[in-house]
Design a protein that fits this description.
Layout (H helix, E strand, L loop, with lengths): L9 H6 L9 E7 L5 H15 L6 H19 L9 E7 L3 E8 L19 H8 L2 E6 L5 E8 L10
Antiparallel strand pairs: 1-2, 2-3, 3-5, 4-5
Helix pairs in contact: 2-3, 3-4
Length: 161
């Protein structure tokens, strides 16, 4: 179910410029078009971050991965599609980790106005709160990638003046 290669995350490079020092690790996981896949995404993120010795990022990346996968399953898959194409990718760069979800829709995610009593609708606000930054890009073929960046523990912007 999981792949360990840069080729598995090649779609990221179509819309997301990597750091000058390329990725040191990358892995991706295809996810089935059912909501149980959200749990699979969390387990995949947890296992990967432990293997990379980045447990400090685990809670935030697990949460963001689950929100991005939920959005892809809820809004990006065609209603009549028997098989969806959602892929969770984690990429470890020199100073950051990228959590990205690829889906077949070309429509970008839209953050709703926060409704603090509603049971849903806060996913992108959580993504924004837990990540350094997030965004999305259309892919050159079809679909899009929605990504969130996380700073590695101990990394800073650089010397302050």
């Amino acid at each position: 179910m999981w792949t360990e290669s840069s080729a598995g995350v090649q779609p990221l490079w179509d819309g997301l410029v990597p750091e000058r020092l390329s990725s040191s690790s990358a892995t991706s996981c295809p996810l089935p078009p059912r909501f149980e896949a959200v749990g699979d995404a969390r387990r995949f993120a947890r296992t990967t971050l432990r293997a990379w010795d980045l447990e400090e990022l685990q809670d935030g990346i697990e949460l963001v991965a689950s929100e991005l996968v939920t959005n892809a399953l809820r809004y990006a898959l065609p209603q009549d599609a028997p098989h969806g194409c959602v892929r969770l990718s984690l990429v470890r760069w020199s100073t950051r980790v990228v959590c990205a979800v690829r889906d077949p829709s070309s429509h970008g995610p839209v953050a709703k106005a926060p409704d603090f009593v509603a049971e849903s609708g806060r996913g992108l606000h959580l993504v924004e709160s837990f990540s350094e930054t997030w965004g999305w890009h259309p892919l050159t073929t079809a679909g899009k990638v929605v990504w969130a960046l996380f700073r590695m523990p101990g990394q800073h912007d650089g010397p302050s003046h």
